[in-house]
Design goal:
This protein is 80% helix and 0% strand. The protein is mainly alpha-helical. The termini are far apart. Keywords: Membrane, Transmembrane, Transmembrane helix.
Length: 290
Amino acid sequence: MYEIHSAGLGDSRCQLYMVPYYLGMSCTGLLYLCGKSSKVASWTALVPSTLVALWGMTAQSLNWAGNMRAGSSIFAVVYASVTIWSAVLSRLLLQRRLNRWQWLSILSVFCGLALTGLDAKSLGPEVFAGSIMIAAGTILHAVCHTLSELISVRGFRIPAYLNSSLQGLTGCTIVGTWQLTFTASHWQRIAGPVEEAGSSWPFCISLLAALALSNFVHAGSFFHLLMKVGVVSTGVAKALQGVLVFVLSHPLYCKQDESQCFSPVKGVSLLIVISGVLAYISATSQRERA
């Protein structure tokens, strides 16, 4: 996303980058068609997937808009908490019970996020606003993940790849309509920054194509894991993804953007959040063995 932003394609009102994102996600339907499973869901059972897609669209829009304002390192810290939010929501929506140690680990994650918020506020209103957007997007993503498990594994039992594809197609329809109505009439919001950044259109198209391909792989893997191991364990993988972003953002982008740089506060925040996530995993595994 930082590369897309640097190329001039990151206007948060046009959201052109959301088109390849949902295009890649919708292509996971090919995995469903090529799979060995012959299970077919009824049309009425497919309606929840389109509703969950609305949650996902809002979450992703907030996450990426916040990422462009706050930087990848802050995004990594805040988004690492998605596991904990998924755990809390699975307690509320899926009726999973949490013990005392699990709740303490959740509290530690909140402390890490609070520390990140204080650091972001000291970096200016733009970074702080981005942090708030990422936090809201993370919570909404956890809602989306939990509801996706609910309709894929329980209740309607929609096949995972079909669920992913339907959510992607819903996103393509809504975002595509936005491109035809708003972006087309405000194209200078895209063309102007692209020209200022000195980016060529073949390069921009290659970036968007890479985004589509990466989200095809991401969505296919995520929904497969969601069906096999559940929302909380899948959230752990998402948290580790955030750690990787945190590690790479400093060496790759610190010289271009100060918000991407490592700082002791960010490091401590990430350590607290990841420790809380690992403590939650440990408490959960001990409870399952008991």
